[in-house]
TrEMBL record:
CDD domains from the UniProt entry: SF2_C_DEAD
Residues spanning the signal sequence: none
Residue ranges annotated for the Helicase ATP-binding domain, each copy included: 73-243
Domain DEAD-box RNA helicase Q: 40-68
Keywords: ATP-binding, Cytoplasm, Helicase, Hydrolase, Nucleotide-binding, Nucleus, RNA-binding
Residue ranges annotated as motif Q motif: 40-68
GO MF annotation list: ATP binding; hydrolase activity; RNA binding; RNA helicase activity
Organism whose genome encodes this protein: Pygocentrus nattereri
Class of enzymatic activity (EC top level): hydrolase
Protein name listed in UniProt: RNA helicase
Chain ranges of the Helicase C-terminal domain: 254-422
Length: 427
């Protein structure tokens, strides 16, 4: 579980934009006879001016694909319930934050919108979006129901929006009686797939949902939709509308793939130096098989004067988050990581990926899926990318050949002692 929550957080942090998705949105309306509204602009939603200002202030020009359909449903009168599934980075958080802010009555000094998230860090991240989008609407206040936020029993929460984790939210309702569940108008359950992967969170979420009024708007979001998530979603959201956006397939079509023959790790390092000497690399991500190799390489590259960030399994989530944020801001140009640590992290904005070690699954076989995820790009508008694989044994050559065969895409040999040849790959 830790892993899924961590992955989800790091993905949020590394991304600074919407992901490309050219798939069609699927909409299943609770009442198939009611007209299906979708909007192409934020103006059409008749938002409060302060909120429209907040949306534009965040640099959003138009609704994302999922927002086109989700926003009119969420903002409809009477409120509609919604289950929405789409991959990370498609605009779900922004959508439900806008819905919460729209439904708040700021003159009422009690909690009206409740959002539950699987972890402390994810709750804080959603809170940041509320703060940004609500920047011009300062009457609306936000509180965090998370561990460590000590509250007096019996005092009443005046903040209109509460974001928290299920355990603390239950405490605030039942033990501390800080909020009245009957006054909640909008209930959001975010990251349902991560939520049910934690022991206890599923039951806690259902207990929370049962305390809410029947006419409270219920919204549930998930990046994936296995059967277990679906079953859970149906228990949380009665009479739902459903919106689904399939994950876009990744391809290797726009990627130039190369391999370099080496004898050992020192050799790989000098090949890397040659590559860096020959072409300009804005930002690169380098994958290693073990922590030990990763930290060795980070040390070597630092000595050469590179600004290197190291993402490693023994770091606590705060440390990993800080590394990712610095990399996203461009403070470091190279991110070195282990296979395990970066599994599932989307690195679309990085144009050069180096497999210092080729990806293997836990049985030591070629891991095609991980290879595709690291190197591949989605959508027709995906930037061209460059992938360089370091091969240092017969075994790793076999792995490379297997990957090449699996995708039926040629991986070309690169001679890193030949500067002219390296320069060519950059064009
Ligand atoms: N309409 C929009 N126009 C431009 N950018 C947007 C829009 N909606 C959201 N974004 C930005 O796109 C990124 C992803 O949005 P958001 O976090 O809402 O997606 P998500 O589906 O909730 O993904 P995650 O679960 O990873 O948070 C964020 O940086 C967000 O600020």
């Amino acid at each position: 579980f830790e892993d899924r929550a961590a992955q989800s957080l790091l993905n949020k942090l590394i991304r600074s934009n919407l992901v490309n998705n050219t798939n069609q949105v699927e909409v299943l309306q609770r009442d198939p006879n009611s007209p299906l509204y979708s909007v192409k602009t934020f103006e059409e939603l008749r938002l409060k001016p302060q909120l429209l200002q907040g949306v534009y202030g965040m640099g959003f020009n138009r609704p994302s694909k999922i927002q086109e359909n989700a926003l009119p449903m969420m903002l409809a009168e009477p409120p509609q319930n919604l289950i929405a599934q789409s991959q990370s980075g498609t605009g779900k958080t922004a959508a439900f934050v806008l819905a919460m802010l729209s439904h708040v009555n700021p003159t009422n000094k009690w909690t009206q919108c409740l959002c539950i998230s699987p972890t402390y860090e994810l709750a804080l991240q959603t809170g940041k979006v509320v703060e940004q989008m609500g920047r011009f609407y300062p009457e609306v206040k936000l509180a965090y129901a998370v561990r460590g936020n000590k509250m007096e029993r019996g005092s009443k929460i005046q903040e209109q929006i509460v974001i928290g984790t299920p355990g603390t939210v239950l405490d605030w309702f039942l033990k501390l009686k800080l909020m009245d569940p009957k006054k909640i108008r909008v209930f959001v359950l975010d990251e349902a797939d991560v939520m049910i992967a934690t022991q206890g969170h599923q039951d806690q979420s259902i207990r929370i949902q049962r305390m809410l009024p029947k006419d409270c708007q219920m919204l549930l979001f998930s990046a994936t939709f296995e059967d277990s998530v679906w079953k859970f979603a149906e228990r949380i959201v009665p009479d739902p509308n459903v919106i689904k956006l399939k994950r876009e397939e990744e391809t290797l079509d726009t990627i130039k793939q190369y391999y370099v023959l080496c004898n050992n790790k020192e050799d790989k390092f000098s090949a890397l130096c040659n590559i860096y000497g020959a072409i300009t690399i804005a930002q690169a991500m380098i994958f290693c098989h073990t922590r030990k190799i990763a930290s060795w390489l980070a040390g070597q590259m630092s000595k050469e004067g590179h600004q290197v960030a190291l993402l490693s399994g023994e770091m606590v989530i705060e440390q990993r988050a800080a590394v990712i944020e610095r990399f996203r801001e461009g403070k470091e140009k190279v991110l070195i990581t282990t296979n395990v640590c970066a599994r599932g992290i989307d690195v679309e904005q990085v144009s050069v990926v180096i497999n210092f070690d080729l990806p293997l699954d836990k049985d030591g076989n070629p891991d095609n899926e991980t290879y595709l995820h690291r190197i591949g790009r989605t959508g027709r508008f995906g930037k061209r990318g460059l992938a360089i694989n370091m091969v240092d044994s017969d075994h790793s050559m076999d792995v490379l050949k297997a990957i090449e065969k699996h995708f039926n895409k040629k991986i070309l040999k690169l001679d890193t002692d030949d500067l002219d040849e390296i320069e060519k790959i950059a064009n």
